Amino acid sequence: MLHIKNCQIIDQNGILNDELLIEKGKIRMIGSEKIKHYIYDSIQKLQIPGLENNEKPLIKTIDAEGNIVMPSFVDLHFHMRNPGQSHKETLLSGNKAALKGGYTHVLAMANTNPVVDSRELVEDMLTENRKLNLIKLFQVSSVTKNLEGKELVDFLKIREMTRFFSDDGKNIDDPKLLEYALYYSRDLDFVILSHDEPETEMVQRNLDIVRKTKGNFHFCHISKEQSMKEIIKAKKEGLNITVEVAPHHIYKSDIDYRVNPPFATESDRKFLIKAIKEGYVDAIATDHAPHTIEDKANGAPGISGIETSFSLCHKVFKEEELGMDKLSKLMSYNPGRFLGLSHREIRAGEDADIVIIKEGSFNIDSKDFESKGKNTPFENDSVEAIVTKTIRKGELLYDNGLN
Questions:
Q1: How far is CA 327 from the centre of its chain?
Q2: Most buried in the list 53, 176, 255, 312, measured by CB within 10 Å?
Q3: Which of 117, 196, 287, 353 is catalytic?
Q4: Can you give the residue ranges of the Amidohydrolase-related domain (predicted)?
Q5: DSSP label at 224?
């Protein structure tokens, strides 16, 4: 059993100052009095002799010392770089980076080498990641073979292994091809995640195709006010669409640092936050995109962001007087539902997937990243919270030693 005491429990339902007990990978109960009696009764029943002789204790206790406990985070947009790009990220470094950022579940994009565009390649990625016994990986398949935008993949076969398809990194420029794919998404119950560039024009075009097909569509890393306005309008129409924003787009504006889509204006950034406040944004997704120093110097777009995403979002939400319960909803509950996970709440019976957060003053230092990618424009930025521990199914998988 794992007993976490003196904690501020925060999930999408609100805040509770209490403690929780984890047993067999699940949250067994919440509440100090209930836990005290349960532990006492368990010890009395077991009557194990010799505990005084330094045998392994029955219960491990973590004193959170008043720090925040939240459901672990779920990322809908992660570039694992596998297969074929281990110079940018390995499965192990990607898993460790996710855990350090507080993530126990990630959805990996398909723009790898080779492109993940078959049932076999999806299955290989899932199998290889399971061997690490760390985070839970969900794998995206491309929509078109080899991301070439010419021929659709075999949706029927690949659907056996995943319900997520994306040509992320590229548009699907042929509107007829996207139309056919969206009909498949409706009939086979899968989701197409869309890269839109130039953003607003492609958002408008893609919304028109969704209106026609009634397919299932997710907008990735939206950064501009006008794009979000078009999506909000479509949501009010009842279209089956969802939308994510990236931490870096709500954290900073007008930065000369290459990322797709680019950093937008301060007006755009403020509108994204307004859309969050009004409930139109479904998830915050990292778009973690690790690169080597050489590739970044040669213009490769992207930020190695999964280890800093919570800290950036926490700072924005504090500045904008948005509650941590809303942040938990956008980083845990909603993306969990998108992937078909359980409720992603701190309550009895749920998987014990938990992070402990310490508030204070900290500086971002890419030398400490677990990711092989050290590419960030936020070097030395001051943040006000970090993840100190990440627990998956009751097992402590990341611990930086701070309480």
A1: 12
A2: 312
A3: 287
A4: 68-396
A5: -
